[in-house]
Every structure is written in C-alpha cells, then in structure tokens.
Amino acid sequence: MKIGCAGLGRMGQRHANNFLNKTPRAELVAAFSPDPRELAWAKENLAPYGVTLYMDYDEMLSHEGLEAVVLATVTAVHAEQAIKAIAADKHVLSEKPLSTSDEISQKVVDAATKKPHLKVMCGFSRRFDASYQDVKAKIEAGLIGKPIIFHGQTGDKRDPSGFFVQYAQFSGGIFVDCTIHDIDLALWFFGEENIVKSIYAAGVTAIEPGLRQHNDCDNAVGIVEFYSGQIAYFYVTRMMAAGQEDQTFIVGTEGKLTVNQDPAINLVQIHDQSGVRRHIPQNYFERFSDAFTLEANQFTLAVLDDLPTPLNPQGAVHAVKIAKALQESMNTGKKVMYDENEQRIK
Amino acid sequence: MKIGCAGLGRMGQRHANNFLNKTPRAELVAAFSPDPRELAWAKENLAPYGVTLYMDYDEMLSHEGLEAVVLATVTAVHAEQAIKAIAADKHVLSEKPLSTSDEISQKVVDAATKKPHLKVMCGFSRRFDASYQDVKAKIEAGLIGKPIIFHGQTGDKRDPSGFFVQYAQFSGGIFVDCTIHDIDLALWFFGEENIVKSIYAAGVTAIEPGLRQHNDCDNAVGIVEFYSGQIAYFYVTRMMAAGQEDQTFIVGTEGKLTVNQDPAINLVQIHDQSGVRRHIPQNYFERFSDAFTLEANQFTLAVLDDLPTPLNPQGAVHAVKIAKALQESMNTGKKVMYDENEQRIK
Amino acid sequence: MKIGCAGLGRMGQRHANNFLNKTPRAELVAAFSPDPRELAWAKENLAPYGVTLYMDYDEMLSHEGLEAVVLATVTAVHAEQAIKAIAADKHVLSEKPLSTSDEISQKVVDAATKKPHLKVMCGFSRRFDASYQDVKAKIEAGLIGKPIIFHGQTGDKRDPSGFFVQYAQFSGGIFVDCTIHDIDLALWFFGEENIVKSIYAAGVTAIEPGLRQHNDCDNAVGIVEFYSGQIAYFYVTRMMAAGQEDQTFIVGTEGKLTVNQDPAINLVQIHDQSGVRRHIPQNYFERFSDAFTLEANQFTLAVLDDLPTPLNPQGAVHAVKIAKALQESMNTGKKVMYDENEQRIK
Amino acid sequence: MKIGCAGLGRMGQRHANNFLNKTPRAELVAAFSPDPRELAWAKENLAPYGVTLYMDYDEMLSHEGLEAVVLATVTAVHAEQAIKAIAADKHVLSEKPLSTSDEISQKVVDAATKKPHLKVMCGFSRRFDASYQDVKAKIEAGLIGKPIIFHGQTGDKRDPSGFFVQYAQFSGGIFVDCTIHDIDLALWFFGEENIVKSIYAAGVTAIEPGLRQHNDCDNAVGIVEFYSGQIAYFYVTRMMAAGQEDQTFIVGTEGKLTVNQDPAINLVQIHDQSGVRRHIPQNYFERFSDAFTLEANQFTLAVLDDLPTPLNPQGAVHAVKIAKALQESMNTGKKVMYDENEQRIK
C-alpha cells in the first residue's frame, strides 16, 4: 500500500517512521509539510529512503500510485484534507480528532459513506494498545459481567514552558484534546450504540491561569450518563509530576479491570535512599508507541485485504460531540441533557 | 478512663473489644444493647472480664464512675444517645455519622459546645489509618504542593444476600453511609474551612433494583467544587467482586499521593495457573482494624490528658451536609449550588 | 500470667511494652537490667504502671507470684538465664537464638524436657507475622503442591556507624544472627523433621572490612540441601539502601508463594519527579512489630491454657546448628556434609 | 544487508520474521532447514516475500549476494555452521550457546578473530531487553555504587508433555541452556574481565525424574565467586506454574536494582473472586520478543556501519565455561575452583 504522510511535526514524524520502517505491507512514498523545519527533517530522514517530499498537500495527493494518506497535520485542517483525499479516492487514516466541531467531523463521515470502497479511519491509538485490547477481549468474554462504570484518566506531564496555553487556542480544550481518548474507550467498552442521557463537568486552572482566556482548564472532571444504566466519568489533567499517567478502570457486575494502575516505563525498580521507585513514561508517545505501530499495520491490513476498519468513523464523531459537551458544561456550569434519541433537551 | 459501649452489633463488638483489650489507658466497665442476641454474646465475651451489661441505655449512663461512652448503635439513635451522654457529663465517641440529618447532627455539636470540658468526637476511622496519616503529614510538609484534586472511592464487596437493600432504609443512602468517609478525608486534606460551591451526582442500580424504593443506588459518582479552586470527586459502589476496595488519590501542583492503588490483605502473592494474585480485605473492618484501635487510644488520650480531639465534631456535620446534597443530586439529577457563605442558592 | 522481662535494650523495651499494653491476659510485674541507662528508661516507662525493677536477674526470678520470663538480654546469657528460670519453675520466652552454640542451646532444651509442665519457647518472630502464617496455611492446604525450593533474604539497612562490626563480636556472625530466621522458616515450610544433607556458603565484605576480624561478612549466600529432595538457599546482607528488605519465596510443584516482593511501609505511593515510589520499613521491628505482639499473646495463651507452644525449642537448636555450619562454610570455603542421621561426615 | 536464516523451528521462525519485517536495513533473502515441516512453513510464510529456501546449509551460504547468516539451528551444529559461514566471509549472528562445549565455542571465536572485518555475535537476547539495558545504564551511571551481588532466576513454565526430558539430551543441561543468560548478565553488570574464583551448585528433580538419565535437574541453584569480591548466584527451574518468570536483582554498595519482580504480560489487572491478579508471559519469547527485534536491528547496524558488535563473542565462551562448571558441580557435588588466571585448581 503506497501511502503519503501529511504533517511532519512530532506526531507526523512518528507516523512517517512507522509506515517507513515498521509496516511491512505499506510503503511510505510521499510526505507533505508546509513547514520548512519539518521539511528539513524529512530531507534528512525520509528522502534518502525514496520518499518524495511536498510543500503542497494537493500535489502530494496527485503522487503517482498513491493509495492512502495518513493525516498528522494540525487538527484544524484534518477534515478538509480528509475530504480532499476521499474525493481523490485515497484511503484515509486521520489523527484524532477529525475536527473540534462535531458538525465538521460529520462531513468527513458523510463523504466517506459515499465511497464505501475507501477505508476511512480516525486513529484512536489506545484501541491498538495491547492492554486495552486485552480488556476489550475480557469484557467480551464476559469476565466482569456487564460493564457499569468506566473511569478514564488522561494525565499529561506538567510542562512549565507555557506550551499548553498556546496549544489551547487550537486544541478545542482539554476534554476535546485529551479526554476524547477516554470517551472513545468508554464507548468501545460499553457498546457504541449507547445513547447519552446527560453530561456534566467541572474544572479548575491550578497552574496555568492563562488557559481561561481560551475557555480551558488544566484539571477537570466530568460525568456522562447513558440511557443504558451505565456511567463514564473522567479526570483529565496537565499537572502530573512524574510523567504521563493515563489510567482506566471498568467495573462490571462480576468484576473489575484496571489498566495502568501502576505506571512504569519498564520492569526495573530502583531501591535507594528515596525508597523503592520506578520511572514512568514521560509523554503520550512513550506510553503508546507500540499502539501507533499496530494501528499503522491494522489500517494497512484493512486496506489491502478489504477488511472493516477496526474503528468506525461515526464513533469518532460521537466522541467529539461528547467531548464538546463536557467542555461546554465545564465552562457554563450547566448540565447538558439529551432525550432518548440523543437530541439535546433545552 | 472508664467507658461504656452502647450497641454490640458487628461494629460495637469491635469497639468493645478494642476498649477491653487494646486500649491500655481505658477500662471497659459497661455495655448496653437492647438486643438479646447481642447481650448473649456480651455475657460470654465481656461479662467474664468485669463488664456490667445493661438492657437500658439510661441505666448504663448511671453506671458508677463511668466517664465516657462509645456509641455503636444504629445511626438513628446516635444523636439522641450522644446528647443524653453529654447531659450526663460523659465524654462521647460516636460512630459516624452523628445522624443522617445535618440539622440533628448540629444539635449534638451544639450540646457539646456548651460543655467544653467534654470530649465529643465522631469517629471517622480512616483518619486513624497509618496510610492516611502519612498522606496528611506529607501534604502538610508540602510534598505535593497545593492539593487540587481529590478522588475517593469506597467499594464494598458485593453481598448477594439482599442486606444492602434492607440497610438502605436506615443508612441515609450510599453517599451518607459510605462516601462520608471520603468527604471527611477531602475536607481534611483540602482544609476544613473550605466553602462548597456546587455538588452534583449521578447513580445507577446495576445489581440491586430494590434500592430505588429507598432512593438509593448501588453505584454512584459525584463531584464537589470548592470556592478555593479545589475539586473532590467520588465513586462509591456495593459491587466489588474481590473485596473491600477503598482507594484514594490526591493530586497537587507538585505531585500526587495515592492510597491503596494495589489492595492486598498482606504481603503474600500467589503464582499459579490463574496468574499472579493477591487476596484483599473482605470488608471495611479487615481493611481498617488497626485504625479503630488507634482511634480508641487517641480518644482516650484526649480525655485523660485533656488534649484536643483529633477530629472536630463540626466537621462531621459538614460531611453529612455534603453527603446529603450528593444523595439529593443523585436522586433529582440537579446540581446543588451554594454562595460564598455556603448558603444554598435556590 | 505474671511475667518479668530480662533485658531492656531496644528489643527488651518492645517486649516489655507488649506484655504491659498489648497482651490482655498477661501482666508485666517485673523487669531486670544490669544497665543503668536501661533502668532509667524503665523507671520512667514501666515503674509507674506497677512494674518492679531489678538490677539482679536472680532476684527478679524470686519476685512473688512470677510465672514466666521473657529473655531479651544479650545472646551470650540467654541459655544460662533460661536454665535458671526453668530451674525456678518459670515459663520462658527467649529471644532468638538460645545461644550461638548449638551444644549450649541443646542444654536449654534438655532442661526444658525435664519439666514438661513448663512452656519454653524461642521466639522466631516471623512465624507470628500474618503473611508468613498465611503462607504456612496455604502450603498446608496444598496450594503449591510439595514445596521444593525456599529462598530467604534478610536485608538489614546499611548502618554507616560501624555498629555491625562491633556487634559481630557477639552475634555469632551474619548467618547466626540474621539467616537463622530464614532457616527457621525453611524448616517450618519444608517440615521440621527433614535431614540436612549438605551446607555451603560464600561471603564478601563489601562495605565493612572490619568484619573479617570477627570471621564475618556483610553479604553472604548459602545453600542447604535436604535428603528429602528440597533445597533452601539464602542471601543475607547488611547493605540495603532503602530499608529492611526481608523477602521470601517458596516454589512448589504446583505453584509459588512470595512474601514481601514489593516492600512498603504502608499503602501510600508518591508520584513526583523521582518517579513513583514508596517508603519501606527501616528496620526489623518496623517490619515485624505486629508479629512480636502476636508472639506475646500466643505464648501467654499456651501458658494459661496449657496448649503446645507454637514453636518447638528443639527446632531452634536445629536452626542454630545449620546457621553455624553456613557460617563455617563461608569462612573455610568448604562444603559441610551430613549422613542420613544428620551426623557430620568428615 | 542480505541475510539468510539457518533453522526454522520455533526460534528460527521468529528470527526469520524479524529480519523479514522488523529490521528495515536488512533483507531476508534465504532460509535453510533440513526439516520438511519447517520448509513447508517457509514455503507459505517466507517464499511469497522473495526468500529463497534451501535444504542444504552450504548451498544457502552460496546464495548470491548473501552477506550474513543468523543461526537458529540446534545447538549441536551452531559452531560448525558458524565456522563455515566465517570461512565463506559472512557475518554471523548465532543463537546462544555457540556450543555446549567451551572448547568448541572457542574455535568459533578463534575463526572470527582471524577475520576481523566480519561481525560475529552470539545472541544473548536479554542484553537487548529495554529493562536490562536500563539497568546497565544505571549501573554505569553509578546509581547503585559498586555492584556486589547478582541474583538471576530463569523460570520456565512447567511443561507436562515430557519435552524437557527429551530436550535434555542435547541442551547441555539446565545451567547451560537457561542460566547461561543469567551468567551473561552477571558478567555484563560486574565487568567481563572478572576472574572466577569458585563455582558450586546443587539441584533436584522434583517433577521430571527422567532428567537424571541426562545428568540434569528441573530445579537448581548455584553460586559463583569472583576474585573481585563479587558473587553471582542463580536459581533455575522448569517448574513455574504461572508462566515464564525470569527475575534479576543486583545489589550494589549504594542501592539495588531489580528486573521483573512483578511479572506481568501487560498493564491489565483483574479484580474478581480470586483476588487481584495479572497474567504473565507464558514463554521466553513472549517475555523477550522486543529484545529479539532490537538484536536483529543492532546486529544489522554493526554490520552496515562497521560498528563493534554489542556483545563480544569471547564473553559467550566464558559464559559457557561457567555454565558447564555449574552443571558439573551440580552432578558431582563438588566445588570447582580456579586460580587467579582462572585456571582450574585440581
């Protein structure tokens, strides 16, 4: 599968590298970035392996033989680029979210729906993590009975550089940027057909007051009720001292499953005067690097063998919608309610 | 210190035993229960060690030389018995909560306030647990900076006997019965002077639909915002499969502390065909038995050496008030809001 | 049971305190120490509670009504004091070891054997630890099949004061002082009737070269083979950086049990810039304080209700014999071998 | 780098797959097996990707353009195949051990020494495991001071099929087959120049008495003393109930490092009626699969960029020599001693 990578920032470089080196059935043939520094990186790291570089996205789409694109550009252009790619008859793997707007996200899904021969997938990387896949399998095997309560925490390491404030201009807010992963997992474990009944959230700015100018917080909690009698609740923070702490538990009628209650970067423990300790991943990619590799391989497999994509893009729209309502509730202090068709109740 | 124990059910027997055997400076001289089976137990287990048994609480209060009482009766009579004891000039250690009503709880505190020479304490046992005391000391030492987020989980082991439904008639509900411990901890760690801004909760009945007739749930989550820019959020459940799972974490601006993320009954691990596993405490008392012993000793110390009690009874009233508002929000679906004097906003 | 405590150093104070405050059926009536500083401590901490103090051990033995003694004096006098107590018809709880000589230890057992109405017990405290008791119960229940391999580690926290060198003059050496606990556990779990086939050890002095003048080491390993087809192997060190690290595992034909693979002082974990860490006990008593309390209570129970003592004193002699052979092998470099009657083969 | 894979059994298939799919700078061009079933597998899994299959090792060596071979055949032919490959001017990555004889192993090293332009490496996969690499880095950074004690455990899952007895005919015995990894690690962490002073071992057959006919055991322990004042001790077993349990600790003068004290297959924990548990890897490859991939990549890097190989083949000979002496001591019951030039003392 000949694929091109759009966007060569931190995340794009990883996708490019995965398709170049770790996805045996795919071939990275093209890469695009509008950013000269990113292109300089690509000249050194991609061009020598036969990857053609583009400063223009549309030109990359015309690369001869190109069959698919992976979108790792800024969120604001995901939807437009996805729609163009679909129009050009390319399979699409987009970084999450499709858009910070659920209406715009829906347009991507609508475009994809019209071309059912194309594989269009929004990459919720955690679904490709071995531990979350194990949890999914155990739930489906009935190990914990019916899942009732989901708790998801996304904890980014504190970054004193002010990055998070800058980033909040575009990110859609902490629930849309981070909790969206937890929302996707909750939908996956509870059943994607579930109808939301209500959404409520609260947040604070403990270390980055500048976030308030972008209607954002650095610590927030939220509760989502479903008509099915299930509840997902979330904690999201930019204030972890030790590293990336993404933790999950699911309580069912017969048991409980946890993921990453004891974060650790590897199997080493240090016994010294500070006690007994272990280091933990410092960022999202350290925690989930294997998941990104698997995602690239499974997307490729779906394209080449015409299998269903592991994720349904409609689910990605749903997750954005929930995330935005959490963000809204956090800012207004008001509960958001839905009827049994998940139409908002005024 | 000569003490009498009122109530000789599961909890009362433990208090009686602690004051009889594990509190060197106290002497259990009297015990009261209206229940013949409990008295039969006492005849065998307490009377031989010189404890006088009473079927009437008022008579026990008149026991010669009695200086203090520990109340382990049903919640409904805690307040009345506490007020009588205070009137009779006895020190009081009451099981939590003082009452499921904060107004009635307040009456106990008012009675105590008029007799400042008496020690009146509502026993939130977790405060006497070594791990929570360690957390408190570390927070006060500044180890995690300013605490911002508190998460408390009280998880009772699933009891298929129907006990929880019966119990719900009197317990005040799951937040008042269980989460009250977590609320007390949140107030302790955040600072007891903090003013609540809002309260919101949601719950389900996953295994015990009978709870709804008592306006109760078997799984619930809640969020409490404080004017100080701190948030406490809670999960409470009667559905734990492995045993008692009471877990807490506190996130501060500089670090995070957790209690019991890896529950275990002791230091043993079993490696067999099921994997690597450990057993966990099966109930509240197995988890906190040492804390009850320390509580008895510290109450005795406060009485004998005229020291401040480790817990302020006004805090217990505050905890009941918050727990009741969580219970109310869970049942109405509405957020409960307060002004900066913690007066409720209609 | 009226008991007197001989020796009021670090360990004696703990025994005295346990019998004074935490052993409901025993009464500490007397205490002996030849050391003025220890007696000064006792005047302040024991005398006010009715404990008579003695500077002479024989005088304490004559204390009116005295029924039992606990020996927490220096190892060199344990045997003599035990034999005197037995002669005076007192029950005896002795700190381990009875002696650093197995011949002298045997004399205590012989004296006890002649007075079967007396309870004579050598206190291997770990046997009273909840985790080790759990392991014993699980082995007896067949959980791991036949136990085959025992690994015991005793790890003392590094003490840069030079204490361990001084102490080595009297301790009998690191295997006799420390590993004796592990040997006792191995015998308990494997079956006390087992016959030793061979003993081998090796050691180094990594931080305290002064130990060599006392034929001792600061780190040593040893292997004991039994004729039953079981092997116990040991690691012992005075060089732990984080605290006391006493760890054990037992591998059986059907499973494995571990004790304290994850040392921790309580249930708290700290997440900060150093990673995720926990503190661990700093010394033997912090790790095993509950075990000492249970030991005092079970000894009292054995005396008052005329039950068998939980430990057979002949086993204590066996443990000393094995420990001494390990120490010898470490110093000579030679394997020590026994025939099937456990008679040494030259 | 064009590479051929010799041997397509369990291990060979993994090496073939790693060079085919996970080593971007290498190309698997040829594969050899004398076994029709293995070749059938290769026809299906390798041939479609352009890999030429051979039933004759010498013919594979003549494959046009071949630059390197990976040897995953039975141990008995490693040395001969390695020497032939060196003679044919191919780089060699051999599975461990080079031979169960240290003399024969030495011949490979001698052959390699004469062709310094070739990279010849014996693959001790654990060295490429992220946790062991972290330990090595921490030791070199001085985190634990001078390492003094190494404990290595290799624990294979119990296999009731009788496989281990059959395998013992060729494996060289449990120390040569399994502990060799731990020996290699000990040498790596202590310093490969260290001189062995003595070797002692003891073993039992708890579940597979048939092993004795091959002078082997199913559980064994051993101690290796070095003239440097360091001690390595080992436990090796074929009797783990839960899965593969390879555990290591290293104690230094200033701290301790552990690897895999809490085995786990992923980050999931299950809370159910059996307690709280986790699954663990079921075999060596599940535990170390990432290490094999890194090994393939680092070998390729060494060849293509003419860098030193991460492992010195002389070290592999040293490890075999120590393993064989442990095996010998286990069977004779006698300590094996060496002088300061590591010449054996009779």
TrEMBL record, chains A, B, C, D:
Lineage of the organism: Eukaryota, Fungi, Dikarya, Ascomycota, Saccharomycotina
InterPro entries per record: Gfo/Idh/MocA-like_OxRdtase_N, GFO_IDH_MocA-like_dom, NAD(P)-bd_dom_sf
Annotated keywords: Oxidoreductase
Gene Ontology CC annotations of this record: cytoplasm
Protein name as annotated: Gfo/Idh/MocA-like oxidoreductase N-terminal domain-containing protein
Cross-referenced Gene3D superfamilies: Dihydrodipicolinate Reductase, domain 2, NAD(P)-binding Rossmann-like Domain
GO BP annotations listed: NADPH regeneration
Domain Gfo/Idh/MocA-like oxidoreductase N-terminal intervals: 2-121
Organism: Lipomyces starkeyi NRRL Y-11557
Highest taxon, organism lineage: Eukaryota
SUPFAM superfamilies: Glyceraldehyde-3-phosphate dehydrogenase-like, C-terminal domain, NAD(P)-binding Rossmann-fold domains
Domain GFO/IDH/MocA-like oxidoreductase: 132-257
GO molecular function: nucleotide binding; oxidoreductase activity
Family to which this protein belongs: Belongs to the Gfo/Idh/MocA family.
